[in-house]
Structure formats: structure tokens, C-alpha cells
Specification:
With 298 residues, this protein is of the alpha+beta class. Helices cover 40% and strands 20% of the residues. It is built from 12 helices and 9 strands. The strands form 2 sheets. It has a 6-stranded antiparallel beta sheet with strand order 1-2-3-4-6-5.
Length: 298
Amino acid sequence: MAVQSLEGLILGEYTIGKCIGEGGMGSVYHATRSDDPTDFAIKVMLPEYIRDEEFRRRFKREGALLSQLQHPNIIPVFSYGDESGYLYYVMRMVKGVSLYDLMQKRRFSPISSWQILNPVAKALDYAHSRNVIHRDIKPGNILIEVVKDGQATKNQIYLADFGLSKVLDWTQLTQTGISVGTPEYMSPEQVMDHPLTPASDVYSLCVVVFEMLLGRYPFYDKRPDRLALKHVGEKPPAPSFLHWSFPRALESVVLQGLEKSPEKRFASANEFSTAYANAVRSLTPEEREAEYYVGKPT
């Protein structure tokens, strides 16, 4: 059960406001600081994590690393804390929507999906260059905020929840033997609890792109464990099989990103994004703007 009724509590320099979201790890609150007009978001972990001494140690160690990640497409983490019986971290408040929410309202063409893919790939390459693997790339962790750009506005893309999955992965593995992650997006090596590399995040990002373009995941199963194993043992459906007019140039890029072997995938997120952009450029103007949505299987 998530932490409740923390409004007014002071943790470090931050005063907790209203709860703005709850998840499997804890609750997110609006927060303020007396010497700064900026709005902050503070995530307070669930009690079962707080009581685990090894988790707390790893949490703070990761915090020291993640607070150093400074990139325009990564939500900055200002501080981590362990205080008054609460384990928390503080981020900039992003006043936007998640890609997950956006995907419930609209469909994506090859060009509009690349506009999401490219900044996320840049964020991943930056993190990977600092030996940080995200481990949980999914639409809910990609945020879109409308910001001013001179007299106009633009969409600013952020990748959220960096690093916590590494700490949670250790905790869940010791308790259940199952790797943390979201089964629809997990790479084969993550399912098998093999060492993860940048190519693991590339696989998950490719699943997100697959979903943006086609409106469905590569694999389905009612049981999460069986769904995860499909990433290991089954070939993904070819997009052109799902939608007869799906461009073959784009299909080859998507299927390479979903290769079972990390060595056969793109070596970096930037390499994936570049190959995707080149494939989009090879399309006709109509194909670039077309939608290839098929939706979830019934």
C-alpha cells in the first residue's frame, strides 16, 4: 500500500504537497522549497523498500550517480534522501503527459514517431556513456511537455525513472527470482537475467516504436511470465504482415532492433535512431505521414 497523508511533511529542504500519482514503488507528490519558486516532484518509496537495509544502501549509491546525469532529455534528479523513516528522491516537476497517455488519444506516423524516438535515443546514449542502463523503457516513462521556444512552442521530450530499476532489480531478484521490468518491453537477456548492455535498452525502445506505429505490442499473453518468455523464444511478427502497406525499409530497421541476440541489434540508441531516420527519408512524403495502425489483437 502506498504512503498516505504526507501533505505538509518536510523532507530535507522540501515541503510535501498533494499526491499527484501512485505506482508500484511508491507515491509521487508535488513539493516546494522555500528558497526556490520552482515546482518539484518528490517520490516517496513504499514501506517494504524502506525497511530493507540493503535496498537503502543501494538506493543512496545510485542516487549519487544519477544526480550527476545532466541532459536536456532526462528529468533531472536534484537529491535523494533517507530521513524520518522515509526514502525519497526529488525531481523537476514536468507539466506534461506521458507517451502512454498520448498513445490512447492519437496515432503515430513514421515521422511523428521519430520525433519521439530521436530525443529519447539521445538521452539513452548520454546515460550509456556514463555506464547507466535504464532497464525499464516504456511509454509511461517517456514524458512530453509543451514549452516556449521564442514566440512559438515546442514539445520537450523527457526520459524518466532512470536508475531506480537497477536497485529494484536486485531487490526483486533476491525476493522472487524474477527480474524487474515491464514484460511487454523486456529484452530477451533481461528476461533471462543475463548481463544488460545498451542494446538491452535499444530493444525496449524498439518495442515502443513498434507500438507507436502499429498500435500493438510484438507479443501478447495473459500471463506476464509467459509473455516475457515470448521475447526469448518467439519471432516478432513482421510489420508488413500486420499491415500490408507498412514500408519495407522501415520494417528492416524495426526487426533489427528486435533481434534476440544483442550483438545483432544496433550497437547504440543513436545508431538505431539514425537508421530509422534514414529509412524515413527513403519513403515518399505520403508514406512518411501515413498511419499503419492495426490495434491490439482481439
